[in-house]
TrEMBL record:
Domain Peptidase M1 membrane alanine aminopeptidase per the UniProt entry, residue ranges: 308-442
CDD domains: M1_APN_like
Low complexity: bias regions: 1-25
Domain of life: Bacteria
Organism (species): Catenulispora yoronensis
Pfam families: Peptidase_M1
Protein name: Peptidase M1 membrane alanine aminopeptidase domain-containing protein
Amino acid sequence: MTGRAADGTAVPPAAAAPSRAEGVALGEPTAPGSAVYTVVLKSDDTGHSWSGTEKIAFTNPGKAAITEFWIRLWGNGDAGCGGVPPERMTDLVGGRIAETTQNCTAYRIELDTPLASGAQGEVSFTLAIDVPVRRDRFGVNGVDTYLGNALAVLAVKDENGWELPPYVDFGESYYSLTADYDVTLDHPAALQVPSSGTVAGETPTGDRVSTHIVANKVRDFSWSAGAYHHDTVVTAAGVTVDAYWPNSESDSNCRELMRYAASALDSYGERFGAYPYPRFTIVFDEFGSAFDGMEYPNYVLASAYRGAVAHEVAHQWWFGLVGDDQYRHPWLDEAFAEYSAEQFEGGGSPAHGCDWVAADERMDVSMDVFEKAGDPLYHDAVYHEGTCMLYDLERTIGRTAMDQLLRGLVSQYEYGVVRPADVRALAASVSGQDLTAFWQRWRNTAG
Ligand SMILES: [Zn+2]
């Protein structure tokens, strides 16, 4: 995310259980694995409301039978359960909703039949989405509709048990494993649907179009609907960049930023490891005080300026490929994304001051601490101090070791989940240095 505080058809489907980094003690993976989401949704004439079916197929990669699991519906995060929630999951087949918590963003599903070790199962349901009118990643912004984290996704069970964090509006609570998505969106022909993944086909019927999208090995799928301007460019490395923007944005600026995004993709690819998907989509729009940018796999929202673009593109590696628990460890993806962006923009030193704004401020705390402390402290600790820390790490271990760390994180954890301890261990390994005092100085020691 960029705050304002202050188809993968060329990507092979996930063949095994969701990638979990080797050597990371995540415990028995009793959560459903190898998820395949098949979604068919039809919009109203405005693109504000959608309804249809979602099917989640999965395997049981653990040794014990699975009898239940959790699904997240993040679109209810702001509105909660009162009245009619913006997102409703009904008519379940294969299981039943046994419990609802976290403001109607978390649903415990009891399977009709226990799923034995190694077996394949599925649940399906009707999904209805009424996007609220508000400038947000899940909101109707003017005439354009943004459906960030709108699909129902499996929650993650790791060494901490089921991770069911609450929604936070100034950062991210999202934590999901890579999966394959097959999504068909039936929408008015006058609306375009920029999204994660790659368009596999478009079928016009009268004044509507059915757009079939495939996104493999991604940890979420998001889209928007609007009468956007559109342009496209292919990067030198061969990635198609699709850019969209509403009437309110400048054509020339958005086209320049589209090329800037393409340049960032190739630059990060050279430094961290190639962007492995065939398409990257960026939507330029103005989200007011809500945010300046928001990252999703293969697809980002960004205010139309270079800093937001550089930051959100960097998230394709830090969060998109190298996943993390964004609620427990928000610095993991944000600090790396901002550090990457500032260096891509040519910064030889941090763009912000490196003085802590509070004596008890820490970088290694979770979003529940930052929610109590407030957005400004979150922004300072995670973005500013986080970037300062990584510049300092580069100075401490040298540019060569820093590049080895970044490439190593991608090669070892892409499509998986990284932990703070993994970063510290790899930094020590590539540098041959004891960095204990370094992490203590940056108030970043928690696992
Ligand atoms: Zn960010």
